[in-house]
Design brief:
The complex is a heterodimer of chains A (587) and B (367).
Chain A: H1 2-14, H2 23-51, H3 56-59, H4 68-76, H5 78-111, H6 117-123, H7 132-143, H8 149-157, H9 168-192, H10 197-204, H11 209-220, H12 222-238, H13 241-247, H14 255-264, H15 270-296, H16 318-346, H17 367-374, H18 376-409, H19 415-423, H20 430-441, H21 452-476, H22 480-488, H23 493-522, H24 538-548, H25 551-586
Helix pairs in contact in A: 2-15, 2-19, 2-20, 5-6, 5-9, 5-12, 5-14, 7-13, 7-16, 7-25, 9-12, 9-13, 10-11, 12-15, 14-15, 15-20, 16-25, 17-25, 18-19, 18-21, 18-23, 20-21, 21-23, 22-23, 23-25, 24-25
Chain B: E1 5-12, E2 21-28, E3 33-37, H1 44-52, E4 59-64, E5 67-71, E6 76-77, E7 85-88, H2 100-110, H3 119-130, H4 145-157, E8 163-167, H5 175-192, E9 195-200, H6 203-209, E10 212-217, E11 220-225, H7 227-232, H8 237-242, E12 247-257, E13 260-264, E14 270-274, E15 284-289, E16 295-296, E17 304-314, E18 318-325, E19 328-335, E20 346-350, E21 357-360
Parallel strand pairs in B: 3-9, 3-10, 7-8, 8-9
Antiparallel strand pairs in B: 1-2, 1-4, 4-5, 5-6, 10-11, 12-13, 12-15, 13-14, 15-21, 16-20, 17-18, 17-20, 18-19
Helix pairs in contact in B: 2-3, 2-4, 3-4
Classes of the chains: A mainly alpha (587), B alpha+beta (367).
Chain lengths: 587, 367
């Protein structure tokens, strides 16, 4: 085999595409410059900021005195330690809970005869679409220690117990239930792809179902569990909305909220924020690296020789128990928060004499919605969000197509570097991207700062890895020979891309643009540092309402935002599906 | 302790449609190896999985060593781990996260009724039996396919179950290895005196391994008999065809006495054939005949015909002839490196009556 491969290589090289002289270096150079501008320059500025007490762009390089001591001083600070420790505790606890829930659900859906499995599988992904801040707001309405709806209900029931979601355990709980789908995604597909006779062998050998689960099933899908675990940890680490809503009232800071607090100080401590942002980035990068390591590592070969029917365990009457547990979970993550938001949004005052007052229709009105829409910023933020979403999708989609094609389909020198630069942002939390862009553009006169474009460019950079990855998969599905056939027919490279690659990859391109659009319109972390009053977006405005303390308006705007997101999501989904069908006819 | 297996009127239905197993009954006395043979989808694997308890039968009774383990009519179902059986899977199903020793020791550690004794000694003894003594502490993923299947075998033998079930254990191996492991498998099974139920679609495997072979089709057990009988006295046209009697001659029954039928083949005359079926004069019959059993160039006392060579395919150690016999096609095999008959030649041949098997022709397909 090796011999034939080695012999085939030079032949493949000699069938290299037509060379284009100066065009190739120009193209590669252009891509590298764009990526450097989007990724390297802001990161470099972030590092400079962390290492000094001035901004070289604003104050000039004369005032720039880099010293590692400043960075170490920040890392030695007690408050930083506390935020770091809190972040690890909240994300660690949240991850543990997410693993429990995610594993349990994948087992129920893939391996048991629980009724309504398909519905459960679909519904348990819903939390992925809920913006973190909306989830945080909903749970603060439900579980604030004094006025929380849950506590009012408990009081009415005469139970002495009170929930307090403004606490570390509240944070862990909300993290755990909302990020369980990340674990579920990995473990359910691993379970589905596992040869069921591995488990049957254990059962025949005399082990109980329980023993089998812990000695065979879980150890075999350990890589998937670990990958899901690391991913959910990384995502939680970068989330701002949930700790802002639930941690802030109890003065619990995690890294993200602490970084934002530093920039909101008067005067803003941008250098300290940069240093803490780097700490957050390093932790994230380590986790992402570990996750990639786990995923690319040799996974156990569990594929059988023949296609197998997935095994489903006959639970008997226990299946109603698992069904009930699934319903309880869905009730907690979907129904309860929605009810809370609806009640808070439509009720004039969020005060209940007793539980019966909940059903007093006279207390409900549209007053909060009117207030929200009387605020000129509301429509502006919706409009801005759409603009940013569209710009991000178009610019990011085009750039990702260029990068994806260059990396996957050509042999130009420098494509490895392009790939690397486009992947770097995977290890940078949104909030850190925001801080880096702030550093990069704040002092530049006539620059991007204060425009819609800085938000869009930050999003393009932040979501570049996801977009390129999504596009690369669709490139890989187009057989190389289809392109080669076009060259042989006398088409040039651009002509081939235009007439062959683009039409065939269209569903993939549309899907990744859709993904970009959706990610952009719900992004909060990076927007926090980049908006101005003219360029405010929905997520930021919602945070404003929440921090302003008006629960009614916050809930009303949460609902408005959720409805807009749902409509846009449905619309884009419908658009990309239509496009996929259109090309299926062609293909 | 090996135990007898008894299956009575087993039925298994998945949802709607034709049942996967329909009224299958047979016994396996202690120490005997029975092979279930049939094309894919015939219900052989389902039968095996019902015996293992991995599939829940919808009818009939299964008993192992005199103890009923499944009888849906009485709501009786014993879980796989309580049945004291061993099973070898097609995909090996060795656990990739363990070493060879851990795999083999697993049943000893997790079985409820542990028989006591030294786990290590038992593992070593079993690994010795399957020829893997030197590999005990290797991770299983470092082994070849054949070695993995030996691990799986050792794992199912180590606790001396009453009954060993094997589900196409050799079909994932390459051809050469399959032959070697096949012979070794029989040696090991016979050495341990295990009662075995073995499922395969490979006739050669069935013949070598089985004390008796059961041929299945569409959920029915067509014939259960020792290999020699399956090969020389197939009970119906499907069994004959499936075990390699691919020649079919059609004709009309003239007379029958006992197990011998006389059949009119049209222009070329009449043929005498053995039949297990109560054919009567006037019935349409099809006669199955193996290519190996056509005696080319021979004139015996009965069933002598003359045929024309249409095509000759020389295969080195044997030659295959396509013949025309009274308008019907016949394939014949001549052993040896010399091909003696030329294309277009008119040659005599004998079809030995005991090797011609007649069945009622219902126009059914044999695939």
């Amino acid at each position: 085999m090796t011999a034939t491969n080695a012999a085939a290589l030079p032949v493949a090289d000699s069938v290299e595409r037509p060379t284009r002289g100066w065009a190739t270096p120009l193209w590669v150079g252009a891509l590298l410059i764009i990526l450097a501008f989007l990724v390297i320059y802001p990161l470099a500025m972030l590092f400079f900021g962390a290492l000094s007490d001035s901004n070289p762009v604003v104050d000039g390089f004369g005032a720039f005195r880099p010293s590692i001591a400043r960075f170490l001083e920040v890392l030695g600070n007690e408050n930083v330690h506390l935020a770091f420790f809190n972040a690890l505790l909240a994300c660690g606890g949240g991850t543990a809970l997410a693993v429990l829930i995610g594993l349990f659900f994948s087992w129920i859906v893939v391996r048991t005869d629980t009724p309504g499995r398909r519905f459960i599988a679909g519904a348990s992904m819903v939390p992925l679409f809920v913006p973190p801040l909306v989830a945080g707001v909903a749970w603060s309405i439900l579980g604030s220690p004094k006025t929380g709806l849950l506590n009012i209900a408990l009081k009415w029931l005469g139970i002495d117990f009170r929930f307090d979601f403004y606490s570390m355990s509240g944070l862990i709980l909300v993290f755990g239930i909302y990020y369980a789908p990340y674990v579920y995604m990995f473990t359910s597909s691993a379970l589905r792809n596992m040869d069921p006779s591995l488990e049957e062998a254990s059962e025949v050998a005399g082990a109980s179902a329980f023993t089998t689960l812990f000695t065979v099933t879980f150890p075999l899908i350990a890589p998937a569990i670990l990958a899901g675990m690391l991913l959910s940890f990384v995502v939680m680490l970068g989330i701002y909305g949930v700790p802002a809503a639930l941690g802030a009232p109890a003065n619990i800071n995690v890294l993200t909220t602490y970084i934002f607090k530093l920039t909101a100080w008067s005067p803003p401590l941008y250098n300290t924020a940069a240093a803490v942002a780097i700490l957050l980035m390093v932790v994230t990068a380590i986790m992402v690296w570990a996750q990639q390591k786990v995923l690319s590592g040799k996974s156990f070969a569990t594929v059988a020789g023949k296609a197998f029917r997935p095994r489903s365990l006959n639970l008997g009457s226990w299946r109603w128990f698992t069904f009930a547990l699934a319903l309880v979970y869905l009730f907690i993550v979907v129904v309860l928060p929605t009810i809370a938001l609806v009640i808070a949004a439509f009720r004039k005052f969020l005060f209940f004499k007793d539980f019966d007052a909940v059903f007093d229709t006279k207390a409900y009105s549209l007053v909060h919605f009117n207030a929200v829409f009387d605020n000129p910023l509301t429509m502006l933020s919706i409009w801005n969000t759409l603009k940013v979403g569209v710009i991000t999708a178009l610019v990011g989609g085009a750039l990702a197509f260029a990068i994806g094609y260059t990396v996957n389909r050509t042999h130009v020198p420098g494509r490895k570097l392009i790939d690397l630069l486009a992947t770097v942002p995977v290890a940078i939390p949104g909030l850190v991207v925001g801080v880096a862009y702030l550093w990069a553009w704040i002092g530049l006169p006539g620059g991007l700062y204060g425009t819609i474009w800085i938000l869009a460019l930050a999003f393009v950079a932040r979501f570049m890895p996801d977009t390129v990855k999504a596009l690369s998969t669709s490139f890989l599905q187009i057989h190389r020979e289809l392109e080669e056939a076009a060259w042989i027919c006398g088409r040039g490279l651009l002509g081939t891309i235009g007439t062959i690659v683009l039409p065939l990859a269209r569903p993939g391109v549309v899907a990744s643009m859709t993904l970009l659009f959706v990610l952009a319109i719900r992004e909060l972390g990076s927007s926090l540092f980049l908006y101005t009053s003219d360029t405010t977006v929905m997520a930021v405005l919602l945070l404003d309402y929440y921090e302003g303390g008006n629960t009614g308006k916050t809930a009303a705007f949460s609902l408005v935002q959720t409805v807009i997101l749902a409509v846009l999501l449905g619309l884009t989904n419908w658009l990309s599906r239509g496009s996929a069908q259109g090309s299926a006819r062609v293909g | 302790m090996s135990a007898a297996l008894s299956i009575e009127n087993l039925g298994k239905r998945f949802g709607v449609g034709r049942p996967a197993v329909d009224g299958v009954s047979f016994d396996v006395p202690a120490g005997e190896i029975v092979v279930l043979l049939g094309p894919s989808g015939c219900g052989k694997t389902t039968t095996l999985r019902c015996v293992a308890g991995l599939e829940h039968p919808t009818g009939g009774r299964i008993s192992i060593g005199g103890r009923v383990v499944s009888e849906p009519e009485r709501g009786l179902l014993v879980s796989p781990r309580e049945r004291d059986i061993g099973m070898v899977f097609q995909s090996y199903a060795v656990w990739p996260h363990m070493t060879v020793r851990q795999n083999v020791a697993y049943p000893l550690k997790h079985r409820r009724k542990s028989r006591g004794g030294d786990i290590n000694a038992k593992v070593n003894e079993t690994l010795e039996l399957v020829g893997l003594a030197d590999y005990a502490d290797r991770p299983v993923v470092s082994l070849s396919g054949g070695q993995m299947q030996r691990v799986a075998l050792a794992r199912s033998l180590v606790y001396r179950p009453q009954l060993l079930l094997l589900d196409e254990p050799l079909s994932n191996l390459d051809a050469k290895l399959r032959l070697r492991l096949r012979d070794e498998l029989r040696r090991i099974l016979k050495q341990t005196g295990m009662t075995g139920l073995y499922v395969t679609h490979d006739q050669a495997e069935a013949v070598v391994l089985g004390d008796r072979i059961g041929v299945m089709r569409d959920g029915h057990l067509l014939q259960m008999a020792p290999p020699g009988e399956i090969y020389n006295r197939p009970a119906d046209a499907f069994v004959a065809n499936f075990t390699g009697a691919s020649n079919v001659l059609r004709g009309k029954v003239l007379a029958r006495s006992g197990e011998t039928a006389t059949i009119d083949l049209g222009g070329v005359g009449r043929i005498e054939a053995w039949t297990p079926q109560p054919l009567s004069a006037g019935d349409q019959a099809r006669i199955a005949l193996r290519a190996e059993n056509v005696r080319l160039g021979e004139r015996a006392e009965r069933n002598v015909f003359s045929a024309r060579v249409l095509e000759r395919r020389y295969q080195g150690t044997q030659t295959v002839y396509d013949l025309e016999l009274g308008g019907q096609r016949l394939e014949a095999l001549e052993l040896g490196t010399a091909a003696r008959h030329d294309p277009n030649a008119e040659i005599p041949l004998t079809l030995p009556p005991e090797m011609c098997w007649a069945y009622r022709d219902e126009g059914q397909s044999l695939d």
